[in-house]
Amino acid sequence: MIDLQNLKDYIFDIVGALYEVHTELGPGLNEYCYQEGLRLQLEEQGIPYQKELTIHPTYHGKEMEAVYRVDFLCKGDIIVECKSVDELNGDMRAQLYNYMRLLKCTCGIIVNFAGKKAEVERYFYDDQTRNILTVDGRSVHKYRQ
What we know:
Blueprint: H1 4-25, H2 31-45, E1 49-55, E2 58-59, E3 62-63, E4 68-74, E5 78-83, H3 90-103, E6 107-112, E7 119-126, E8 131-133, E9 139-142
Parallel strand pairs: 5-6
Antiparallel strand pairs: 1-4, 2-3, 4-5, 6-7, 7-8, 8-9
Helix pairs in contact: 1-2
């Protein structure tokens, strides 16, 4: 079982960086502006990251040609997906969940910068149970065993 409190503490600085970007840039810009702002903020805070990390799913242990690009991989195991949309939807969340599963990342954050306030959702992936959990431990998605 994963320790949700430790994970929430572990991503605290990244969540803070997201709010800082929104405070500085405000609502209404496109996704790429917020990504660039986040890149600069992560650098200012000294948080290690990779931007637009390319991943290839595998099939029977073989890498597929299919390509996905993760907006940010922070600290080596925290996925951050940036959006600037009217509202987050199930497809956007599923994208994050799939990235978490494919990379076996325990932490995932999706942020919507479009509104007056940044909308930040945090999720955790338990590789043993293959469950995606909310910050309160509620299961939102389970992958087949």
